[in-house]
Design goal:
It contains nine helices and 15 strands. With about 325 residues, it is of the alpha/beta class. Strands 5-9-4-1-2-3-10 form a seven-stranded parallel β-sheet, sandwiched between helices. The chain has a five-stranded parallel β-sheet with strand order 12-11-13-14-15. The radius of gyration is 21 Å and the shape is globular.
Length: about 325
């Protein structure tokens, strides 16, 4: 399929119906790529009951908005989402397709790429256009190195975008043309459907969209001490996160894990308590606007990426910080 010059951006709604943070971020590289290719930004939003959300989201930089609003797209199941996206690509013939690097996006993007015989770069953090061809940069080896790949051929270039890698676009900066799609799905596309969503743990559902995240690591010593993290998070009005080591030890549930094999977050404030700063953890939170680290080891790697570092005993510092936050709020 001969691709044109446009960039197709796929948005995704969170459990509360609002666009996921990475959906806002994708307009930054989309506008950059479209400027280089001389094309427009086409936005696609799939789901059930998402028309208003789609319009609000697309106003952050789309020239054209396609809405696939259908009850059968509830939960954005891989086969159904792949069918809709494949149809849109065949009709719009974009040069580049950007998919959110979420659990859903990582599921259906490979299906689309395989079906079209197109290239796919996963977990991308940077893009450029050279001689009309897209180049994408993505972390490899647990985030220890960056790999740069270049798309060849005439077909569309597909890429999933890592959350926290780009600045979030502001809404109401564009007035895109809106088109509602007639969704056609086969029985094979609907073999898997969402029955229900069961929340796990308090505050977990807010972790991806939280503006403040307080995370704890092995420096806490034992699971009971995680109460210090919970109390500080509550005082700040934030969500609780954890490192892989803590989760593997059974101190915290997996859905709170932040890092390469867990969640990627990009809050305004990230507080790292007793976290050394292993690369695998840092890749999941280094997109935060500000990082505050509390660790007794002055040589801990976390201080290399921290905006503010506090060297000292966390068992003294964190309770004092929590008390001060509460005093300020009263």
């Amino acid at each position: 399929m001969q691709a044109g010059a446009d960039v197709l951006v796929v948005g995704e709604a969170a459990a509360d119906g609002s666009p996921r943070p990475v959906s806002w971020e994708m307009f930054s590289p989309a506008r950059q790529i479209a400027s280089a290719t001389g094309g427009k930004v086409i936005a696609l939003f799939m789901g059930a009951g998402i028309a208003d959300t789609a319009r609000h989201w697309a106003s952050a930089g789309a020239d054209r908005l396609l809405i696939a609003d259908d009850a059968r797209l509830e939960g954005v199941m891989p086969a159904a989402a792949a069918a809709v996206l494949t149809l849109v690509i065949s009709q719009a013939q974009p040069a580049v397709v950007l998919v959110p690097g979420t659990t859903a996006g990582r599921d259906y993007a490979p299906l689309v790429a395989a079906g079209l015989g197109a290239g796919l770069a996963a977990d991308c953090v940077k893009f450029s256009v050279e001689d009309g061809k897209l180049s994408a940069t993505r972390p490899v080896l647990g985030g220890r190195a960056l790999s740069r790949v270049r798309f060849l051929g005439d077909g569309p270039a597909l890429a999933t975008v890592r959350s926290g890698s780009f600045a979030k676009a502001e809404s109401l900066v564009s007035r895109p043309e809106v088109e509602t799609l007639d969704v056609e799905l086969t029985a094979d596309d609907l073999r898997v459907s969402q029955v229900e969503i069961t929340p796990k743990g308090s505050g977990v559902s807010r972790l991806d969209a939280a503006e403040i995240v307080v995370s704890g690591g092995r420096g806490l010593g034992k699971p009971e001490q995680f109460a210090l993290v919970e109390e500080l998070a509550e005082a700040l009005g934030g969500a609780v996160g954890a490192t892989r080591a803590v989760v593997d030890a059974g101190w915290r549930p997996h859905q709170e894990q932040i890092g390469q094999t867990g969640r990627t977050v990009s809050p305004k404030l990230y507080v790292a308590v007793g976290i050394s700063g292993a690369v695998q953890h840092n890749v999941g939170m280094q997109g935060a606007d500000a990082i505050v680290a509390v660790n007794r080891d002055p040589d801990a790697p976390i201080f290399k990426i921290a905006s503010f570092g506090i060297v000292g005993d966390l068992f003294e510092i964190v309770p004092a910080l929590t008390a001060e936050v509460r005093n300020v709020k009263t």
